[in-house]
Amino acid sequence: MTRFVDVHDMVRWIGRFGHEAIMSGMVEYLESDFKRWQSFEKSPRVASHTPFGVIELMPTSDADTYAFKYVNGHPSNPARGFQTVTAFGVLADVQNGYPVFLAEMTVLTALRTAATSAMVAKQLARPESTTMALIGTGSQSEFQSIAIRSATGINKLRIWDTDPDAMAKCERNLEPLNFEIYKASSAADAAAGADIVTTCTADKTNAQVLHKDAIRPGMHLNAIGGDCPGKTELDPDILDEATVFVEYTPQTRIEGEIQNKPADFAVTEFWQVLTGKAPGRTSETQVTIFDSVGFAIEDFSALRYLRDSVDGTEFFEEIDLVAHPDDPKDLFGFVGAYSPVGG
Amino acid sequence: MTRFVDVHDMVRWIGRFGHEAIMSGMVEYLESDFKRWQSFEKSPRVASHTPFGVIELMPTSDADTYAFKYVNGHPSNPARGFQTVTAFGVLADVQNGYPVFLAEMTVLTALRTAATSAMVAKQLARPESTTMALIGTGSQSEFQSIAIRSATGINKLRIWDTDPDAMAKCERNLEPLNFEIYKASSAADAAAGADIVTTCTADKTNAQVLHKDAIRPGMHLNAIGGDCPGKTELDPDILDEATVFVEYTPQTRIEGEIQNKPADFAVTEFWQVLTGKAPGRTSETQVTIFDSVGFAIEDFSALRYLRDSVDGTEFFEEIDLVAHPDDPKDLFGFVGAYSPVGG
């Protein structure tokens, strides 16, 4: 049988363990998987683009476990009452190819994207950082805030969104969690005085939600909303005076902020920082950018964490996804045993 | 909610409607989709190869519906009590990216592979064909026999497998269905006198289960077991004196029998035959080969047929795969509404 964590299980799991504990646990799994980056089979995700949006499959594998995520991105969905991003994912056993774990990943992707930002901010932000900014207060915003606070202790939050309702929603959700929140009047206002600036907007355009003059020495930028060809968030000039860190270079060249730069624009893969193969932040005035597009290994880590965490709990059910005939060569007999064959 | 057809639903569905009716219905869906071949987004499947086997994702899409299948192929599985191939698949709505239908496809793949063979045999085999041969009597064999009979009326069956137990199993399953079965002493013996020869073996090697001297003028070969790089079934010389039909040329050059031939080896895509853009069989003595590797559009057709066929029946359940917050931008609030957020 295949274990299945549905939406209801997922929210009960979060309720039981709490966002911050889950983010911390997930960061540990992410770090452990990023440190063994070279043991994974990696490929750019497989994307199906339409005028409405994109549907992607994101596979990766180590020697024991195969994982993939199905995820869509449809920027016009919220206006029609749907979410921009929904997802689900699967873990399979490499040795026999059987799918062993299925989970909703709409919520889990929000957690893993935030946990990834937190893992990176912990390494690249200035240790004395006290304030973070959020440009874009959609579905990701609260998760990002909690994850970064969990990793860095930062409690001061400056938020901005073109949609006042989205800002009010973010404030309403985060205020009870003891964030000190400032509602900014523009993206530049939000960024002013922030040590860590997260851009998480959803427009499917080459937007510039943050201009070069909003950048201050020593900032760490966490650019997560630019994640498709033709979908970026930053004034490209910002990249020229910063050090850019990515997940998986071939994918980020297609989908990240650096799609607006020449193919030889210098980047550092973050796993190299974690393993000491490349420097992270090297000065107090350096601007660091995590040009994040989301990579399959992060989903692998998140699914692995979820699988381990729900083991022994009631937060999953077993589903009958794989036929298991007594004689593996007798699939036909297996079908017939349940149902007399007729013409 | 997402509709889910599990293994139990699948076997009850087959029991209700019967293999032959289902194969016929599926052939209609396949033909309708092959005829509009050019309206699909097509790409070679994404394969993860290990020493144990392969795990593949097979996506395709038309303007309305996206489909993908997860499928493994592990030749050493049966010796360990597992099936060589297991699969599941998903249909999604292109307009909003939401997954709307999930189904087991271990059984459904067997049905769709057989229905595809039947669709092709109906076009390419000589109309006066009376006898078919099966080289390899594993999981696919009974489905192939029933599908081809359903499409051509052929009832005489010559079978061969290196595993006597697999032959006995095939005979045991098919005899009650009124096939006239001859158990051959070799692959060549099985092919002798057959008008349609189906090879469906599972070795992960460049095997030659059928040699050139077993081929007779006018034969139609249905080569379905060669479906991975380094996994072929036919003596390559057979191809030189035959007309070769494929599903999707770029994928078949990598995975089909023609991987043993130069990259410019002439082939015809089968959809062209169906639409009249290319000739099928042009003489009574011509040898035709369907170098089948399985293509995503076939899974699209099979899933679409299943979805339509189970609609209004009890052969599916609804699962909670996609979170649906009242405010699509408030995923965090959705989680919190079910579970007080804690540290």
Structural summary, described in words:
The structure is a homodimer of 343-residue chains. Chain A has 343 residues and is of the alpha/beta class. Helices cover 34% and strands 24% of the residues of chain A. In chain A, a hairpin with a 3-residue loop joins strand 3 and strand 4. The model of chain A has no long low-confidence stretch (mean pLDDT 93). Chains A and B meet through helix 1, helix 2, strand 3, strand 4 and strand 5 of A and helix 1, helix 2, strand 3, strand 4 and strand 5 of B.
Taking the alpha carbons of the first and last residues of chain A, their distance comes to 31 Å
Assembly type: homodimer
- Tell me the number of strands of chain A: 17
Q: How are the strands ordered across the major sheet of chain A? A: 9-8-7-10-12-16-14-15
In short:
Chain A is of the alpha/beta class and 343 residues long.
List keywords for this structure.
ornithine cyclodeaminase, domain 1; globular; 24% strand; homodimer; 343 residues; Rossmann fold; alpha/beta; eight-stranded parallel beta sheet; seven-stranded mixed beta sheet; 2 domains
Which secondary structure elements does this structure contain, and how are they paired or packed?
The structure is a homodimer of 343-residue chains.
Chain A: E1 2-5, H1 7-17, H2 19-35, E2 46-49, E3 54-61, E4 65-73, E5 87-93, E6 99-104, H3 106-124, E7 131-135, H4 141-152, E8 156-160, H5 164-174, E9 180-183, H6 187-191, E10 196-199, E11 206-210, E12 220-223, E13 232-234, H7 236-240, E14 242-246, H8 249-255, E15 268-269, H9 270-274, E16 287-291, H10 296-310, E17 317-319, H11 331-338
Parallel strand pairs in A: 1-6, 7-8, 7-10, 8-9, 10-12, 11-13, 12-16, 14-15, 14-16
Antiparallel strand pairs in A: 1-17, 2-3, 3-4, 4-5, 5-6
